[in-house]
Write a structure and sequence with these properties.
With 137 residues, this protein is mainly alpha-helical. It is built from 3 helices and 2 strands, in the order H-E-H-E-H.
């Protein structure tokens, strides 16, 4: 994404991308709830996003490679996907708990919608500023 956009818009954009990835992981778990031996997956990116957003613009991290975290800001945050350690294995070796996955899906959807709304408000503020505060002359 262009550096034209402020850090809030870039962070919201990345958050939406990560929420979409999380939704796909959760959907995959639900789809495989009856697959023998399937291990439920989980994604974690919230801590990395918080860390990326708490970095001061005045403090630049020194990196030796452009791919290192801190070089890209929120755009460099990726989801850490792994087998869910809280999964209880059923007799067939499957660790998907449908009720838990449905709750995760609903929570993720709420957070996705909240990010969309925040992005809309931020863009609305930019539009307001561009139109000189809304005063048509």
């Amino acid at each position: 994404m262009s550096s034209f956009f402020d850090p809030t818009i870039r962070a919201l954009n990345q958050n939406l991308n990560l929420r979409e990835e999380n939704q796909n992981i959760i959907s995959g778990n639900i789809a495989n709830a009856d697959t023998p031996g399937y291990k439920a997956k989980t994604a974690n990116f919230e801590h990395a996003m918080r860390d990326a957003m708490n970095t001061s613009e005045n403090i630049k991290l020194e990196t030796s490679d452009s791919e290192h975290f801190g070089s890209k800001g929120p755009e460099g945050v990726v989801a850490d996907v792994y087998d869910d350690p809280n999964g209880v294995e059923s007799l067939d070796g499957n660790t998907v708990d449908r009720a838990n996955e449905m709750a995760k899906m609903k929570e993720n959807q709420i957070l996705y919608n909240a990010s969309i709304e925040a992005l809309r408000k931020k863009i609305g503020m930019l539009e307001y500023g561009v139109s000189e505060g809304g005063g048509n002359k």
